[in-house]
Automatic annotation (TrEMBL):
Any Pfam family: Sugar_tr
Organism lineage: Eukaryota, Viridiplantae, Streptophyta, Embryophyta, Tracheophyta
TM regions (residue ranges): 12-32, 74-92, 104-123, 129-150, 162-180, 192-213, 275-299, 311-333, 345-364, 376-400, 412-433, 439-462
Native species: Herrania umbratica
Subcellular localization(s) per the UniProt record: Membrane
CDD domains to which the protein is assigned, alphabetical: MFS_STP
This protein's name: Sugar transport protein 8-like
PROSITE patterns: MFS, SUGAR_TRANSPORT_1, SUGAR_TRANSPORT_2
Residue ranges of coiled coil: none
GO cellular component: membrane
Similarity comment: family membership: Belongs to the major facilitator superfamily. Sugar transporter (TC 2.A.1.1) family.
Topology of the protein relative to the lipid bilayer: Multi-pass membrane protein
Keywords for this protein: Membrane, Sugar transport, Symport, Transmembrane, Transmembrane helix, Transport
GO molecular function: monosaccharide transmembrane transporter activity; symporter activity
Length: 505
C-alpha cells in the first residue's frame, strides 16, 4: 500500500461487493448482445426470414468461402446497435452529471429491455433494426455509467480489479450467448427469437440492481448532496475515518462546479493527455480485430470448414477462454500494472493474427475447406488471441479512461471514450464481412499491422497508472511523462495546477 492509499483507509464490505456485482450486470448485458448477434446471423431460420439472398448464397455449393455472408443489411443488423450507442453516450454523459450514475444505469436497463422484447417479436427487417437501436441506446447509457460507477466506488488499491468486473461480465455475457445459441440452433423455426429475447434477462437483473446499489459519493457531492455523500462514503468504505478522502471529493467538486462547459474544457491543451489516450485506447481496442472475431466467430469458423453446430461449439470454446483469461486481469492489473499487460498482449496477438492469416492464405481458397487439423489449429490460434486480449486490451480499454479524467470532465471525457469505442465497433461490424470478401486472408494481416502500431503507442505514449490516486495523477503521471508534460502548462486549466482537482477513487 502506497503513502497515498494509507491516507484513505477502507475495508471490503458485503454491501460494496454486492454493489460492484449488480452494477457489473451492465457488462453482462453488453456482452450477451456481442455474442448473440454472430450466432443468430449464422442460423438458417433467421437468414430465411430476414436475409433470404444471404441464405441462398450460403447454401450454394460452389460459393466463395470469403464472400457468402457479404451483405450490407446483414452487417447493419449487427452494427446499427453501435451507431445508436455512439450517439446516446453523449446524452448519457449529461444524464450522469445531472441526475447521477444510478438513474443512468436504470435507464440503460429499460432501453435494453425494450429492445430485447422488440427484437424477439420482429416480423420484418425494420422492426429488427429499430430493436437494435433501442438496444444500442441501452448499451450507450450502460457503458457510460457502469465503468464510472465502479471506478468511483472502488478503493484506489483495488480500483483496477473492481473496474475489470465490467469486462469480466462482458465476457460472461458472450459465453452465455454462445451457450444459448448452441442450444437454440435446432429449435426450428423460432430458435433465433429465443436467443434475441433472452437478452432481456441481464437487463432485468441490471434494472433490479440499479434499485439496490448506492449512488457514488462523487456524484452526490457533485450534485450538492454533501451529507448523503459523506454517509455513503462511510458505508462503502466500511470505516468511519473517511474525512480525508471526503475532503478531496469536496475540493474536486468545487473545482468541477466552476467548469460550466465540460466538453469545452476537454478541448483545452491541459485536457489533451487523458482525452487522446482515452480515445486511442478505444480505437486500438477495436482494431485488434477482436470484435470481428467475437461478432462473427460462428461465421468465421464456417468459413474455415466447420458446420453450423461445430462452429457454434468452437465459439463456445473461445467464450470460455475469454472469461477465464479476464480473471487473470482481475488478479494481475493492480500487481503487474497496465503497461506490461498491454505490451505482452500486443506480442501474442500479433503472432496469432499473422499465423491465422498465413494459414488461410496458403490453405483456404475460394471454394475448398481446411483439413480438420488445419481448422483445429486456427481455432487454437483464435483462442490464444482471445486469451491475450481478455487480460489486456479488453478490460484496460475501459479501465484506463475511467481513472484518468478529473471530476469536472469525467463524464464528458468518458463519453468521448465510449462514443469512440462505439464508432469503431460500428465501422468494424459494418465492414468486416465485406473486408473478408475483398481482402480474404489478408484481413488478418491488416489487424496485425494495427497491433504492431498499438505496441508502439503503449511503449512511447501510455504512462503507468497502477496504484496512482486520481488526485495526484497530474503530478505523478502527466507532468513526469516525457511527451505529455508539455501539455501541462499554458491554458490555466486545473490540470496544471496544484493541488490537482480530481477526487480520489
Amino acid at each position: 500500500m502506497t503513502a497515498e492509499t494509507e491516507d484513505y483507509p477502507s475495508k471490503i464490505t458485503l454491501y460494496v461487493v454486492v454493489c460492484w456485482i449488480l452494477a457489473a450486470f451492465g457488462g453482462l448485458m453488453f456482452g450477451y448482445d456481442i455474442g448473440i448477434s454472430g450466432g443468430v446471423t449464422a442460423m438458417d431460420d433467421f437468414l430465411i426470414k430476414f436475409f433470404p439472398k444471404v441464405h441462398e448464397r450460403k447454401m450454394h455449393a460452389k460459393e466463395n468461402n470469403y464472400c457468402k455472408y457479404d451483405d450490407q443489411n446483414l452487417q447493419l443488423f449487427t452494427s446499427s446497435l453501435y451507431l445508436a450507442a455512439l450517439v446516446s453516450s453523449f446524452t448519457a454523459s449529461k444524464v450522469c452529471t445531472k441526475f447521477g450514475r444510478k438513474p443512468t444505469i436504470l435507464l440503460a436497463s429499460a432501453f435494453f429491455l425494450g429492445g430485447a422484447a422488440l427484437s424477439a417479436a420482429a416480423q420484418n427487417l425494420w422492426m429488427l433494426i429499430i430493436a437494435r437501436i433501442l438496444l444500442g441506446i441501452g448499451v450507450g447509457f450502460g457503458n457510460e455509467a457502469v465503468p464510472l460507477f465502479l471506478s468511483e466506488i472502488a478503493p484506489v488499491q483495488h480500483r483496477g480489479a473492481v473496474n475489470i468486473l465490467f469486462q469480466l461480465f462482458v465476457t460472461i455475457g458472450i459465453f452465455l450467448a454462445n451457450l444459448v445459441n448452441y442450444g437454440t440452433l435446432k429449435m426450428h423455426p423460432y430458435g433465433w427469437r429465443v436467443s434475441l429475447g433472452l437478452a432481456g434477462v441481464p437487463a432485468i437483473m441490471l434494472c433490479i440492481g440499479s434499485l439496490i446499489i448506492t449512488e457514488t459519493p462523487a456524484s452526490l457531492v457533485e450534485r450538492g448532496k454533501e451529507l448523503a455523500g459523506h454517509k455513503t462514503l462511510k458505508k462503502i468504505r466500511g470505516v468511519d475515518e473517511v474525512d480525508s478522502e471526503f475532503d478531496q471529493i469536496v475540493r474536486a467538486s468545487k473545482i468541477a462546479q466552476e467548469v460550466k462547459h465540460p466538453f469545452k474544457k476537454l478541448m483545452k491543451r491541459s485536457s489533451m493527455p487523458p482525452l487522446i489516450i482515452g480515445i486511442m485506447l478505444q480505437v486500438f481496442q477495436q482494431f485488434t480485430g477482436i470484435n470481428a472475431i467475437m461478432f462473427y466467430a460462428p461465421v468465421l469458423f464456417q468459413t474455415v470448414g466447420f458446420k453450423n453446430d461445430a462452429s457454434l461449439l468452437s465459439s463456445l470454446i473461445t467464450g470460455t477462454v475469454n472469461v477465464l483469461s479476464t480473471l487473470v486481469s482481475v488478479y494481475a492489473v493492480d500487481k503487474i500494472g497496465r503497461r506490461k499487460l498491454l505490451l505482452q498482449a500486443c506480442i501474442q496477438m500479433f503472432i496469432c493474427q499473422t499465423a491465422i492469416g498465413a494459414i488461410l492464405l496458403v490453405h483456404l481458397h475460394s471454394t475448398d475447406s481446411l483439413t480438420k487439423m488445419q481448422a483445429a489449429f486456427v481455432v487454437t490460434l483464435v483462442c490464444l488471441f482471445v486469451m491475450s486480449f481478455a487480460w489486456s486490451w479488453g478490460p484496460l480499454g475501459w479501465l484506463i479512461p475511467s481513472e484518468t479524467f478529473p471530476l469536472e470532465t469525467r463524464t464528458a471525457g468518458f463519453a468521448f471514450a465510449v462514443s469512440s469505442n462505439m464508432l469503431f465497433t460500428f465501422i468494424i461490424a459494418q465492414a468486416f464481412l465485406s473486408m473478408m470478401c475483398h481482402l480474404r486472408a489478408s484481413i488478418f494481416f491488416f489487424f496485425a499491422a494495427w497491433i504492431f502500431a498499438m505496441g508502439l503507442f503503449v511503449l512511447f505514449l501510455l504512462p503507468e497508472t497502477k496504484n496512482v490516486p486520481i488526485d495526484v495523477m497530474v503530478d505523478r503521471v502527466w507532468k513526469k511523462h516525457p511527451v505529455w508534460k508539455r501539455f501541462m502548462v499554458g491554458d490555466g486549466g486545473s490540470l496544471s495546477s496544484k493541488p490537482t482537482n480530481s477526487e480520489k477513487i
